[in-house]
Design goal:
single chain, alpha/beta, Aspartate Aminotransferase, domain 1, Aspartate Aminotransferase, domain 2, 7-stranded mixed beta sheet, 4-stranded antiparallel beta sheet, 14 helices
Length: 399
């Protein structure tokens, strides 16, 4: 293999095999396995049906209307205004669309550009484990150092003492993800307050990945997403990140955004403009329309996903898994130990043959040996009949 920094990046993301060859991500590998075997793909998190028709039509109209050249570097003004208005409407946040918003190539670019922009080599970034796969690679690209705080199965609560212990004099960022992939947890106010307290006390910036902000299964106020930027003293030290891909079921459009203090946005823009410069011009007006959809239509997106999540949870429990019901996100984590499987990775390799279903082992997101190795992540962002079929197949599974 050719020499270069790729090796460190692939290693940080756990993608180097023993012979030093870079492997595709587990999600790509499992999607490929599903395509090859015809198994139902509950591995990679992408919906199997389209989002709101008006949003799709707006993109078609934009392409037909000639919106096909480079948009402005920070994103088109109507989208930046829609993002600012969305944050005011849903969370009471006061965001300036001209100086405090940046449109990015998905949340992935927002995360990577933020980490590169806001750390120096050797600086430390605190992350929650299990961890979404792009974080470790981005931290490595920046030459920064990852410090993990484990969320323990099955409660997956963030413990304030563990968080405080992970912060050192070299810490620059806390990379927060709520609603959390893969655990399906929506962090509650007490957990967010613990993060905010450490950030204020140690003068840290919080990079908050909130891509599943509308995909929560609220019961009254329970499991309602609270952006950490709304906590006292946090608006000026938070980079809030989200993505149209999740809310509007358009993961392939790769329209994300962030908002933060003007000097922080300037710094991230300096990096972002040399990663992609800009992207997705015809999708930007469509996403602006989506963000302005009536409340009931936005709330229906989370409620609908919640029904699918419940369907999957019940199906997995009926099949004999130990299941932790999710508070939000595309995902449900299940323990295969009650079925006699102690190695989630081995089970996921065998699942297409055993049951005609594809899932992802939680080991792909976590290295802490104190956590059970028998956990498997299933995606619920599929049509109900697909979830029912997958659950039926899992119930009939025999070793
Ligand atoms: C927690 C989390 N952050 C970021 C992303 C990436 O979002 P995007 O597709 O907008 O880059 C995902 C996608 O799965 C995710 O689960």
């Amino acid at each position: 293999m050719v020499d270069g920094a790729w090796r460190k990046v692939a290693k940080a993301a756990g993608l180097l095999d023993s012979s030093g060859v870079p492997a595709p991500t587990i999600f790509a590998r499992m999607s490929e396995l599903a395509a090859r075997t015809g198994a139902i793909n509950l591995g990679q998190g992408f919906p199997d049906s389209d989002g709101p028709q008006v949003v799709l039509e707006a993109a078609v109209a934009a392409i037909r209307g000639g919106v096909n050249q480079y948009p402005p570097g920070r994103g088109i003004a109507p989208l930046r205004q829609a993002i600012a208005e969305h944050q005011r409407h849903w969370y009471g946040l006061d965001v300036d669309p001209d100086t405090e918003v940046l449109v990015t190539a998905g949340a992935t670019e927002a995360l990577t550009a933020s980490i590169i922009a806001l750390t120096e080599p050797g600086d430390e970034v605190v992350v929650l484990e299990p961890i979404y796969d792009s974080y470790s690679a981005a931290i490595e690209m920046a030459g920064a150092v990852r410090r993990t705080v484990t969320l323990d199965w099955p409660e997956y609560r963030l413990k304030a003492d563990k968080l405080a212990a992970a912060v050192t004099d070299r810490t620059r960022l806390i990379l927060l993800n709520t609603p959390h992939n893969p655990t399906g947890r929506v962090l509650d106010r007490a957990e967010l307050e613990a993060v905010a307290a450490v950030a204020r006390e140690r003068d840290l910036i919080v990079v908050a990945d909130e891509v599943y902000e509308h995909l929560t299964f609220t019961v009254g106020e329970q499991h309602r997403h609270v952006p950490i930027a709304t906590l006292p003293g946090m608006a000026g030290r938070t980079v809030t990140i989200s993505s149209a891909g999740k809310t509007f079921s358009v993961t392939g459009w790769k329209i994300g955004w962030l908002h933060a203090r003007p000097d922080i946005v300037d710094a991230i823009t300096a990096v972002k403009q040399f990663l992609t410069y800009v992207n997705g011009s015809p999708f930007q007006p469509a996403v602006a329309q989506g963000l302005a959809l009536p409340d009931d239509e936005i709330l229906a997106i989370g409620a609908d996903l919640g029904r699918r999540s419940t369907l999957l949870t019940e199906g997995l429990a009926a099949a004999g898994f130990g299941v932790r019901p999710s508070d939000g996100t595309y995902f449900v984590i299940a323990d295969a130990a009650p079925l006699g499987y102690t190695d989630g990775a081995a089970l996921c390799d065998d699942l297409p043959r055993l049951a005609g279903v594809v899932a992802v082992p939680v080991q792909a997101f976590a290295k802490d040996p104190s956590q059970p190795s028998s956990l498997v992540r299933f995606a619920c962002c599929k049509r109900p009949e697909v979830i029912e079929e997958a659950a039926g197949r899992l119930a009939r599974m025999r070793p």
